[in-house]
Amino acid sequence: MLNFLFVFIGGGLGSMCRYGIARGMAHYKLNFPLATFTANVLACIILGYLISLKSGDQVSGNTQLLIMTGFCGGFSTFSTFTAETHLLFQEGAYGQGLFYVGASLVVCLLSLYLGTRLGLR
Hints:
Distance between the termini: 34 Å
Number of strands: 0
Keywords: Cell inner membrane, Cell membrane, Ion channel, Ion transport, Membrane, Metal-binding, Sodium, Transmembrane, Transmembrane helix, Transport
InterPro entries: FluC (IPR003691)
Family: Belongs to the fluoride channel Fluc/FEX (TC 1.A.43) family.
Mean pLDDT: 94
GO molecular function: fluoride channel activity; metal ion binding
Number of domains: 1
Strand content: under 5%
Number of helices: 5
Helix content: over 70%
Transmembrane segments: 32-51, 63-81, 93-115
Low-confidence stretches: none
Shape: globular
Radius of gyration: 16 Å
């Protein structure tokens, strides 16, 4: 039961941080979902970093639940990414929508790799 508490706390903190980024970037009237993109990239860096530490047994099971499953799960958001992409397509911004999908995949993969490299140092 304690495991659920770690995931719950981490998820709440991650969601609050994502909300904070969205509020902080709201005044940048962009036609690109930068807040979600930023949260997803940062979550990938954090997750990659902890994955590399985990492989060296430097991260406890509770820390994995709190940060990797909870925080990164609450901080990153595939559903919002999908909804924002759908909205771009509905508005006829096909180029931006495709760019968002491609950039998210490429940059998030590179961010995860960066995080793993940082964790190996």
